[in-house]
Amino acid sequence: MDDVLVIQCPDCESTLKVDRATGAVLSHEPAVVKRKLGSLEEAAAENTRRTERAADLFAASFEREKHKSEILEKTFREALEKAQKEPAGRPRSPFDDD
What we know:
Helices cover 47% and strands 15% of the residues. It is α+β, with helices and mostly antiparallel strands. The chain folds into two domains: 1-31, no CATH class; 38-85.
């Protein structure tokens, strides 16, 4: 199975490449043709949609950062436990290879 998902946005028709494991967007190719707004009401609706999308993107980014700190904390705890179990020995010197 491929580790990268290729997704086409139903709203803006851009192409996204997303990593399956992390959910991170690897690349973004914008749509070839952009929509033109016909009226002030459409422009206001588009502005509202973009504002909501920005809020959603921020929330997703915040969740990723929160998850990242949990992973780093777990890794630190595991390394700390491993260091406490192993006896403190003499550190390896660069001259040990000679």
